[in-house]
Design goal:
The protein is mainly α and 266 residues long. The chain is 73% helix and 2% strand. It has a two-stranded antiparallel sheet with strand order 1-2.
Length: 266
Amino acid sequence: MKRKRVRRPRLAALTHISFLPSLFTLLNLFLGYMALIHIVGPRQNLKTAIYYLTASVIMDGIDGTIARLTRTESNFGVQLDSLVDAVTFGLVTSMLVFRWGFQFGFTQAGSIVSFVFLSAGLIRLARFNVFKEAQVVPANVFIGLPIPIAAMTVCSAVLIFERPQSPGGALLFSLYVLVVSLLMISNVKYRTVKKLAFRNTLPILFLLAFVVGCLIIFPDTTIPILTIIYVLSPLVVLALKHKPRSTEAAGDSHRAERGPETKKGD
């Protein structure tokens, strides 16, 4: 009996690169690299590093959008995007956690907390890749807090509060980072902008222009507000789902108390 030859995929096909999406992915990496320089470099400027990380989040959204619109999604692009996210939003943000929260003391605790954030981010990315390859999760749903938003959640604390210089402040910041880490590896469902059909695009375009303007003019306020809204969005969705049910249940109980209605002619 002749054995059938198994066709192996060509190396060029496995490493096929879509130029435009990959360009934005590498730009994401470059912005993360610049943020790292401003975190650990001799001229430390954490606020500038946060601005670079915010731009990285925008680039991370653009590369995936371009790949879907041009239908140039590839497994190589997915892996490259995950590796870049691991560096930009995992490693760089964990260094931001360490340098901002524990620079004036408690360095051993800070190293553990920052490593927990990094580990949770990489676990979250690995799980996302597995789910996407198996196609077990809808395209418009994220399981767990996405790592770019987790990075922005940490950046929001840096923008709002002063550096913790006491054991109490360091403890609160540690708990904050641990909660964000748990959200990344949790089963909380977050919605994405994929498969959203907008009936009228003019108000959406105006809203986007307004948000971009606020990001440019008031970044220190806009970044925390947008981040908090997204992080708390599952609670809003849950409340909206349970509200109609509770209303219907109240109506049914009210009808039961009144008893069956009778017509005037009876």
